[in-house]
Amino acid sequence: MTRAFLLEKETFAKEKKLGKRGQVTVFILLGILIVVIAGGIYYTVSRQNQTLEPKEKEVPSQAQTVNLYIKQCVNTVLESGVNLIGRQGGYIEIPQDPVGVGEFKNYLPLSLNSKVVYWYYKADNNVDFIQKPSIESMEEEITNYIDNNLMSCLGEFNEYQGFNVRKGKISVLVDIQKSKVVTRVDFPVRIEKGDFNFDFDTFYGEYNAPLGELFEIAEKVYDKEQGDYFFEKKTLDMMSVYDEIPYVGEVDSCVAPVWVKYNVVKDFKRIIRDNTLFYKIKGTDYVLSREKNSYYELDAGVNAKEVHANFLFSEVWPFTLEVFPEENGLLKGHSVTENLGEARGLAEAFVCMSTYEFIYNVQYPVLIILNKNDYTFQFSNMVVIDKNTPRVNKDEFFTVDKEYDQRFCQKQIDFNVDVVDEKFNVIDKADVKYKCITHSCKLGQSDNGLWKGQVPLCINGEFVGEKEGYHFGRAQISTNEPGSALLVLEKLKKIKVDVIAIRAGSGEVREGEKVFIDLEEKNKKFSRFIIYPEQKEIELIPGVYTAKIFMTSPVTGGLTVPEKIINNCATVPRGAFGALFGINEEKCEDVTIPSTTVDQMMTGTKDFTFLVTENDLKKNKLIFYAPYYGVIKDVTDIGKLMEQEGKNPSFE
Description:
The protein is of the alpha+beta class. The chain has 9 helices and 40 strands. 23% of the residues lie in helices and 39% in strands.
């Protein structure tokens, strides 16, 4: 009918037959559209009914112990999966690294068995990758985790407290909500004892963790960084403000200044570490003591006053720095008179000045940690400075395929792999992998402590065994002929953590103070990182740990860093045709870094080494002692924090 109104009066009759045929087509399309919409509504409503409205049938008293046992396992495995996905940046299975070589992988290695996926990173082949998960992908990963681990929790379930048990196939549905994660597990179970029998069909689980809310905040932070380059711009400011990083400048000296690159890298890492601690997400749980402190705020449109947000960079994390010009590890300035030959001496009687200008390529990770109600979601993002400018977002990014390289993982050689704990008790349902160069192949899970099957052909490859609650085990073995391997996994021991500040008074960590504790057992390639008082438990294994502890405290009235004006220059295309033909020009502008009052300051730090024994981990509590120098009065006093006396941890 719409078309008929557009037709001229004299042509309407000619089009009448075609119009009828068009109407039929329209009705068919409308019918299809209605079916699709109705199907979508039915799917959405059906899914909501499945997840949000548990309908468990009444269970007789004789079957309650079995019912509670299965429900407890459903909730235990759900909680484990949700916690793991929060720790690893929205992933349970770390995506396969498409490059696999170089300083940076596709994840931030907090330790070999603790990894946080980069949502954005630049690989060593200079290709940009995006690995940001979605609610749907996280639901799928938790679904698979429950499907793969529920039976391991239930154990040998053919008999239970005198019941004969028959089990059917497990089917799992997961729904991530703002403040909780719920699951429905369709799991046919029939129990029989004498004349009594009962059939279970569905079990529901729920974990009160704000995964949905924290993921939404993480997305906003990520999108803000992708659009505004918050971390990159702050890094360029650090390069301009700190004298330890030679950037662009001049000195009143006839002798050109020289810097050692090794020292520049060391200082650069320290400066990034110290500044990253002060970053805040506007709208989360903190209060600015002064409006000028907004310099450190990342405004991503967040309104979540109950969420704690922390940003971290550690000097032991991957870091690359290229600087031009460089000569044998030295960065050299130039005297303005150095090219005057014999006239140089005369010229220097009137003018004595040296200049320097260096171009930097820098890459390093930032860990973004969000915490609410003792639940943590964290992800990492790479900061990239490219020729003294923030990285440029491209129209297209590569996404990482999670599937392993099946061409390499072709099974050829028979092998047996025994999986045990440190006391040689067999470990069931441990994931067994084989790694060769840059490839990693999933082999399967141990059955009663043994995996049997075929593996790829490789010289000096490595078997790796992993299971939740254990430190991984590994064994380097060539697979050019049939053989066997032994993997020993150490069980993680959970212990409470307390911190005492070394200062007059009770030693209590006061409101607003935070203590950052970084532990590493280098021989076993095991590490842990906690923030106290937000985290009051830690999982450890016996060993000799190197540790770094530092404390931050609120600054009453703030510590003021004076305003500084810097001149930033960048090479840009000249006009519309410049980008087309590669014609560039240098544009410079003065950037004012406002006077900033820091309201949170490092007040103590110490490195130390300590021994943890098996008996230590049987005790109730691990106490760390945080050095406290006090709030420094001037930024030049920061070095005094490193001179404090420390005290090794103790167990009670």
